[in-house]
Specification:
Layout (H helix, E strand, L loop, with lengths): L5 H12 L8 H30 L7 H22 L12 H15 L8 H11 L2 H11 L1
């Protein structure tokens, strides 16, 4: 099997691993929903913010684009923050592919000190996801 999209690869691996990484029933659909949401709603804004706030040379940055992307991310984090106030992880008590994929997409903003604003639950969730032992091992490879 060859896949080229990282989020699809993660879902494929989670399906092979089974519970709790890929839950059964309705939560399997919710995990896929969160994965698609992160690709469609989060990633474009993370990349636009990163480019215009951090990555591009200062002369090529567009502060208005960085601000618009940050505002869009903030709105999406508020939704996550509200839902995470009632549970520790996206689908409940167990870490799942939903947490892995959504946190992975947010990683670029997180590592570049994106201001999560008034979303303490979402920030705490993201910190927990990206500080798990397995995540720390992978981050060490990536961050050097």
């Amino acid at each position: 099997m060859t896949l080229f999209e990282s989020l699809a690869t993660n879902v494929y691996i989670a399906a092979k691993a089974g519970l709790p990484l890929l839950p059964a029933g309705d939560d399997a659909a919710r995990a896929l929903q969160r994965t698609l949401w992160s690709a469609a709603e989060i990633e474009p804004n993370v990349l636009a913010w990163r480019d215009h706030a951090v990555r591009l040379p200062a002369t090529q940055r567009d502060p208005a684009r960085a601000e618009a992307a940050a505002a869009a991310l903030g709105q999406r984090l508020v939704v996550r923050d509200t839902r995470l106030a009632h549970r520790p992880l996206l689908l409940g008590e167990a870490f799942s592919i939903a947490d892995c994929n959504v946190a992975g997409v947010f990683y670029t903003a997180w590592i570049n000190a994106f201001n999560a604003g008034a979303t303490p639950q979402a920030r705490s969730w993201l910190d927990r996801c990206l500080s798990r032992p397995a995540a720390l091992r992978v981050r060490k490879l990536r961050e050097g």
